[in-house]
């Protein structure tokens, strides 16, 4: 029969890709040519498949990507929701800022969601992120605070959720739509970190135009949580630097320590939050001596 169909990869397991088409869901393999070209099909990819007589298919072509992330491995997303809990596990602004920068670098809208606000207030995080101009929401999957607001944000978009293991991503998604019935887990006290209850990336359909990807959680000690941003691009990934970064004394200013740096002055004047600038400096120092191949 060899019928050609267009669809979207919604899940990948052990070399098989599940492609959703207007007709139905097909289990497909990728053609060898992708491996030769070192292209890995990603969840979220729009693809062209060829159907075999037995109803399985082959991915023939990956359509051009709007964007993609390597960590978490997804393509064509509209926004990245970075979930962090007020405690248990405790928030780490550097990790939040790394995830925001990775999204900004790819043209993906970042959103910060602070969870478990029934346990403690997350207002100090609101101060940091509202000042930076990043959309910010406080939620609790126990009291349902903020759940409707996040749900409204998902309408008509493809959204990936990221955040440390145990911050409550799956719990929040279940509150947003109880049909998802995602598995949630207790944090292992013994290891002091969450167990990996979410195993693989999968696009879950909320309605015909809205999808969410719950991605595997990471322990807070993981350094490889998200894609690194190269040093030249980093200043563009902190949106609140924008009004200042062309006003520095030196055009080559790294905005980390130079005399006459307008960004540093803005930190001093309380216009840029010191926590955000500290993350910028830490990230700059982390990537400044990396070689091209080490960025992957
Ligand atoms: N008090 C409180 N506990 C919560 C809340 N949300 C989640 N939890 C608890 O936190 C633990 C982890 O929740 P999950 O939803 O599994 O976290 P996750 O981010 O999906 O974790 P991974 O799948 O490992 O990435 C569970 O014991 C939940 O019951 C909340 O809003 N308030
Ligand atoms: Zn500067």
UniProtKB/TrEMBL annotation:
Key words of the record: Cytoplasm, GTP-binding, Hydrolase, Metal-binding, Nucleotide-binding, Ribosome biogenesis, RNA-binding, rRNA-binding, Zinc
Localization in the cell: Cytoplasm
KW Zinc (keyword) present: yes
Keyword set includes Ribonucleoprotein: no
Residues annotated as domain CP-type G: 66-221
Cofactor entry: Zn(2+)
Enzyme class name: hydrolase
Coarse class of the protein's main subcellular location: cytoplasm
Cofactor note: Binds 1 zinc ion per subunit.
Residues binding GTP: 115-118, 163-171
All copies of domain EngC GTPase, residue ranges: 75-219
Matching NCBIfam families: ribosome small subunit-dependent GTPase A
Self-association and partners: Monomer. Associates with 30S ribosomal subunit, binds 16S rRNA.
Family: Belongs to the TRAFAC class YlqF/YawG GTPase family. RsgA subfamily.
Protein's UniProt name: Small ribosomal subunit biogenesis GTPase RsgA
């Amino acid at each position: 029969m060899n019928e050609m169909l267009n669809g979207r990869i919604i899940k990948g397991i052990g070399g098989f890709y599940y492609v959703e088409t207007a007709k139905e869901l097909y289990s497909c393999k990728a053609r060898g040519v992708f491996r030769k070209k070192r292209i890995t099909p990603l969840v979220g990819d729009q693809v062209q498949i060829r159907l075999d007589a037995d109803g399985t298919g082959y991915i023939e072509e990956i359509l051009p990507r709007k964007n993609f992330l390597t960590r978490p491995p997804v393509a064509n997303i509209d926004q990245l929701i970075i979930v962090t809990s007020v405690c248990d596990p405790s928030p780490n602004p550097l990790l939040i800022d790394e995830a925001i920068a990775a999204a900004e670098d790819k043209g993906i809208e970042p959103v910060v969601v602070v969870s478990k606000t029934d346990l403690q207030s997350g207002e100090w995080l609101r101060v940091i992120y509202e000042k930076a101009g990043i959309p910010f929401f406080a939620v609790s999957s126990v009291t349902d605070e903020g759940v409707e607001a996040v749900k409204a944000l998902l309408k008509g978009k493809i959204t990936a959720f990221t955040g440390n293991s145990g911050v409550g991503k799956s719990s929040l998604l279940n509150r947003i739509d109880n049909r998802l019935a995602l598995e949630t887990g207790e944090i292992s006290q013994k290891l002091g970190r969450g167990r990996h209850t979410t195993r693989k990336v999968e696009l879950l359909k909320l309605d015909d135009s809205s999808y969410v990807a719950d991605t595997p959680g990471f322990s807070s000690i993981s350094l490889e949580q998200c894609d690194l941003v190269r040093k030249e691009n980093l200043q563009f990934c902190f949106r609140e630097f924008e009004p200042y970064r062309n006003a520095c004394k030196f055009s080559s200013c790294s905005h980390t320590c130079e005399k006459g740096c307008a960004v540093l002055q803005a930190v001093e004047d309380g216009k840029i939050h010191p926590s955000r600038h500290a993350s910028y400096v830490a990230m700059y120092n982390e990537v400044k001596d990396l070689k091209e191949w080490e960025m992957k």
